[in-house]
Amino acid sequence: MLTDGIRFLSKKLADHFSRNLKLCSVWRRSLHQAHIVGRVKGKLRTMKVDTPEFRGLFTPELNKLIDLFKKHDYELRIAGGAVRDLLMGKQPHDVDFATTATPNQMKEMFELEGIRMINNKGESHGTITARINDKENFEVTTLRIDVRTDGRHAEVQFTKDWELDANRRDLTINAMFLDLDGTLYDYFQGQEDLLERKVRFVGDPASRIQEDYLRILRYFRFYGRIAKSPNDHEEKTLHAIQENGAGLAGISGERIWLEFKKIVCGNFAGNLIKIMHDVGVTQYIGLPEKPNVEEFEEVYSRAHHLDPQPMTYMSALLSKEEEVYQLNKRLKMSNDELKLGTFILQYRGVSMGDSPIRHCQHLFIDNPGKDVKVRALVTELVKYLGDQELVREFSQWSPPPFPVSGYDLVGLGVRKGPRFAKLIHELRQLWKQSDFKMTKEELLEHVDDILK
Question: What family does the database annotate (predicted)?
C-alpha cells in the first residue's frame, strides 16, 4: 500500500513538473518572439458570481454560443466592462467575450457549425462577430498581448494566457474576466478597487498611458462613474498624467470628443476639469487657455437634473463664439453640436424679460431651420439656465403655422429674390409681435408698406 501511494505521488509530481515545464517553454517562446509591453505580475483572485443581472444574460443564443466553444474545447469568458457592470449590480448594455481560440479557429468553427459571421473589421485585432439564430450578435476576441505601441495603436500577438491579456488593459476595474459558470478571475485587485470605489491603472500609470494616451481621458471618465469623492486620486497617477498629457495632441479629435462628452456629464465633472486644467491636459483637447470652470460648475449644479446634452455643458467652458469654432477644429463635432454651442453663447446672456415663455417662442420663430432642430436648440438653452418649469412649459407649446405662404406673395406680384426673403422676414416679425394672432389677410395688408 505504501509503495503504491509513493508511486501515485511520484506520478502526480511528474505530471505537475511536466505541465510547468511546458508552461515555461511557452513563456520563453513568447518572450523571445515579442517584447511584452509593460508587463506587471498579478495575483489571481477568484470568487463566484450569481446575480439576477448575470443570470439575465443567458438567452438561448448565448447558450448556443457557450455550447459551441465547449464542443470545440476553447475557453470563453466575459471580459472587461461587462464584468465591471455586473459586479456593480448593473445590467451591461454591451457584453464582450474573450477566448483562447484564434480568429482562424473561430472562423473554422463557425463555418463548420453554420453560424453566420458579420463585420470583419476587427479581425486583425482578433475580433470575430457571430450572429446566432439571426437574433443576437456576439463579439468574441482572441486573448492578446501588445507587442508594440505608439501611443495610439498597438501591434498585437495572440496568446492563450488570460493574465497576459488582463495585463495589457487600462484600469484594474476593466481587467477582470467572468467565466460563464460564474467564476470571476481577477489578477489586479479590480474587484477590491470596485468595492472601495478606486480607479487605478494596471501596474505603472505612465506605462499604461504611453501605450494609448487616450487612457488619460478614460481615467477621468471612469473616475466620474466609480469614485465616491471628488479628490481621491493617487499622486503617482496625476503625476503620470501631467508628464504624458502632451501625448493627447496625437489623438484624433473624434476619439477625444467621444470620451470628453462622458466626462462633462459624469459625477464631479467640475472638479475633474479643474484637475485636467491644472495638470495641463485641457490645452491638448481644444479648450481655451483659461476655460470658464466657474461657469461650468454653476451650469452643472443647476442643470444636471435636466439631463442636458454634452455640448450644452461644454458651452459653459467657453467665453465667446470664436472659441466654439476653435473647439470644433480640434474635436470635429457634428453640425448640430456646433450650432448648439454658438446658439447658447449667443443667447445665454440675453434677458428673458417679464415673459420667459414668450421669449422662448420668439427665439423659435426668429431662428430658421427645421422645427424639431430649432426646438431642440431653445430647449437646451433653457436647460443651460436651469429652469425646469420653463422646459416643461416650452415642451407643451405647439407653434401655430405661419399663415402667409410664398404663393400668397407671388399672387400679389412679388418676385422671388432678396426683397422676397426680406418681406417674409418682416411679416413673420409682425406676426410674432401680435403673439401669433394676426391673420393672413391682416398680414398681407402690410406688404405694400414693407416694400416701399
Answer: Belongs to the tRNA nucleotidyltransferase/poly(A) polymerase family.
